[in-house]
Amino acid sequence: MKQETAIPIVALLALLAVEAFQLSAQTDTPAASTPSAAEEPSTTTPPPAEPGRSKIRPPKNRFQWMAKLRGDVTSAMTRATLDKKQMKGLEKSNETLRLAVEAHANKIKFNENEIQSALREIHKQFAGNVFQPADRDLVNADLEHLPLRPPRERRPRPIRPRRLPPWYY
Fold first, then answer.
1. Global pTM?
2. Three-state secondary-structure class, residue 70
3. If you average pLDDT over residues 104-133, what whole number do you get?
């Protein structure tokens, strides 16, 4: 019995809310007064965000930046015309970044040299004019947070004295 009376009450409340909203909309914007060019129209919506900016918090660690870079590279690849070699290189580096992020999430070590080679490949591909400027700027901004590490300086092999054969003595 209570359920039967609850449905009409809810419907009545919904109708009242709609009518109240319509009345408030009519009283807020009178038809006689229109804002002039000197007056700022009062808007309740916030101004539109800048293009390329969102309210999503920036990534905090290196692997979150890799995930963001991977998404930006993927979206840039869809809007660019690439040949097979470029596409293959970017897909491989994209896959490497995905595996690195997954390995980090699962607390598994991943080869740093592979990450660096993927970043180098992305950096090399985005240096050209194949991609749109907005995409290139987004990817380059992500790459700034993932700097390429300089190659390790390999020490030269130590020069050891040559052993002389036993018959020499």
1. 0.56
2. helix
3. 92
